UniProtKB/TrEMBL annotation:
Protein known as: Acetyltransferase, N-acetylglutamate synthase
Family matches, as PANTHER family: AMINOALKYLPHOSPHONATE N-ACETYLTRANSFERASE-RELATED (PTHR43877:SF2), AMINOALKYLPHOSPHONATE N-ACETYLTRANSFERASE-RELATED-RELATED (PTHR43877)
Sequence ranges assigned to domain N-acetyltransferase in this UniProt record: 3-165
Xref: Pfam families: Acetyltransf_10 (PF13673)
PROSITE patterns xrefs: GNAT
Taxonomic lineage: Archaea, Methanobacteriati, Methanobacteriota, Stenosarchaea group, Halobacteria
GO MF term list: acyltransferase activity, transferring groups other than amino-acyl groups
């Protein structure tokens, strides 16, 4: 399958939101209940994606001029991690129609390459349970579970880390 990965622009935000919701609704059923998925995929404001934030590197994948995936990385990790890591992968989502066709892996590779260029020595993330095998394939190890609340529903997320980077 042919697709391109590029830096996101503000006009991508509504399409990013659509991919975000479709990914959750289409790929999380083996790990979460219908109620948990509905709460997690709730209406999202396209303005909330940090496309232009100085502290993020935000990418989209396009196929035939349609956004089919996105992800972003921060070279300075937030303080909610239980392990000492430098940067974080905040999100990688792909549309269910392109799942398992290399889109997520390509987005990941580009994000990690930018982290290396930024001098990041280790990356952390909180993965949904359904995404854990994807991140393990990228070289991450599981550290601990966290309970996160979305609109009254609790979901278990898995803290993971990768060190050293490629």
């Amino acid at each position: 399958m042919e697709f391109v990965v590029r830096e996101a622009v503000d006009d991508d935000a509504p399409n990013i939101r659509d991919v975000h919701r479709a990914s959750i609704e289409g790929l999380a059923a083996q790990a979460y209940t219908d109620a948990q998925i509905a709460a997690w995929a709730h209406d999202r404001d396209p303005e909330q994606y940090p496309i232009d934030a100085a502290e993020t590197y935000f990418l989209v994948a396009e196929r035939e001029a349609q956004v089919v995936g996105f992800g972003w990385m921060k070279p300075d990790a937030d303080d909610y991690f239980q392990t000492a890591i430098n940067g974080e992968i905040t999100a990688i989502y792909v549309h269910p129609t392109v799942a398992r066709h290399g889109v997520g892996s390509r987005i990941y590779d580009e994000l990690e390459a930018q982290a290396v260029r930024d001098g990041v020595a280790s990356l952390g993330l909180w993965a949904s349970r359904n995404a854990v095998p994807f991140y393990e394939a990228q070289g991450y190890t599981r550290l601990t579970d966290h309970v996160h609340e979305y609109r009254g529903e609790t979901l278990t997320l898995v803290e993971m880390e990768k060190r050293p980077l490629r």
